[in-house]
Design brief:
- By secondary structure, this protein is an alpha+beta fold.
- It contains two helices and three strands, in the order αβββα.
- Strands 1-2-3 form a three-stranded antiparallel beta sheet, with helices on one face.
- The N and C termini lie far apart (64 Å).
- Keywords: Cytokine, Signal.
- Belongs to the intercrine gamma family.
- Pfam families: IL8.
Length: 96
């Protein structure tokens, strides 16, 4: 009887562990293919930018994506970067 109870408890704990592991697995998280390593110091033409992504690893940066799919990174503390983010957000709001 004790062996039967121990087996049931073991299966119960394995089930909980499996559910917890699957819920927090890397397969459910979004993985970025691109990372900002070099940051552009040049101001970009805001009209050519279609979207952006915020990144904190390996550096705190904004990755802009142009209409042609080119990815350019800028530092979050630069004025032109904040202006570009606001411009893209306003364009997105108008579409909705």
């Amino acid at each position: 009887m004790k062996l039967h109870t121990a087996a049931i408890l073991l299966l119960f704990w394995l089930g909980i562990f499996t559910v917890h592991t699957v819920k927090g697995s890397a397969g459910t998280q979004r993985m970025n293919k691109y990372r900002c390593v070099n940051l552009s110091t040049n101001r970009l033409n805001i009209q050519n930018l279609v979207s952006y992504e915020r990144q904190q690893v390996p550096t705190d940066a904004i990755m802009f994506i142009t209409a042609r799919g080119i990815r350019i990174c800028g530092s979050t503390n630069q004025k032109w970067v904040q202006t570009a983010i606001n411009h893209i957000d306003q364009r997105r709001a108008k579409r909705k």
